[in-house]
Design a protein that fits this description.
- By secondary structure, the chain is of the alpha/beta class.
- It has 5 helices and 6 strands, in the order ββββααβααβα.
- The strands form 2 sheets. The chain has a 4-stranded mixed β-sheet. Strands 5-6 form a two-stranded parallel ribbon.
- β1 and β2 form a beta hairpin.
- The chain is globular.
- The protein starts with a strand and ends with a helix.
């Protein structure tokens, strides 16, 4: 039976919770104080058998604090583990290459993922992303600059984009 740890920390934009495998890979994360909002997002292929609260998640907690304090690339080196189909897996990897302060449109994101006509599939990859912040789905916006959706709320997405543009 595998064990994962979770922790919630306060950030400038609200509580942030991460679920992390024992090897340090993020399984799920987002701006919530309730780990129960994250556990359904974890792919059954990597879901832990048990979750335990831990005050500090080591490098993950350090990266989250650093990002919110202004070191925007602090989360880039953190391993993420999520599973899905081939396109979605690839799209999540591509999303990790979108730099802070350089948001892309859903159409641009589909093209970056190698399927320019798959805008809806790219949007679905964003919507199904379990590891918010570490896989920066907030950096994808509508054509024309509109926010588009965000699991953790448009106000959080707007704050993140403003934070990264500064």
């Amino acid at each position: 039976m595998s064990i994962a740890h979770w922790s919630t920390m306060d950030t400038k934009v609200g509580p942030f919770t991460a679920v992390v495998a024992t090897d340090g890979a993020v399984l799920a994360s987002g701006w919530t104080g309730d780990v129960a909002e994250l556990t359904p997002l974890i792919s059954p292929a990597v879901a832990p058998g048990e979750l335990r609260e831990k005050r500090d998640l080591g490098p993950v907690s350090k990266a989250v604090r650093a990002y919110h304090a202004g070191t925007l690339d602090a989360v880039d080196g953190i391993e993420v583990r999520q599973r899905s189909g081939e396109f979605r897996q690839h799209a999540w990897e591509v999303l990790r290459t979108v730099r802070a302060g350089e948001p892309v449109t859903y159409a641009d994101y589909a093209a970056l993922a190698g399927r320019p006509s798959a805008v809806r599939a790219a949007a679905t990859a964003c919507a199904q992303n379990a590891a918010a912040l570490f896989v920066p789905c907030h950096r994808v916006v509508r054509t024309g600059g509109g926010m588009g959706g965000f699991r953790w709320g448009v106000d959080v997405k707007r704050w993140l984009l403003t934070h990264e543009a500064a």
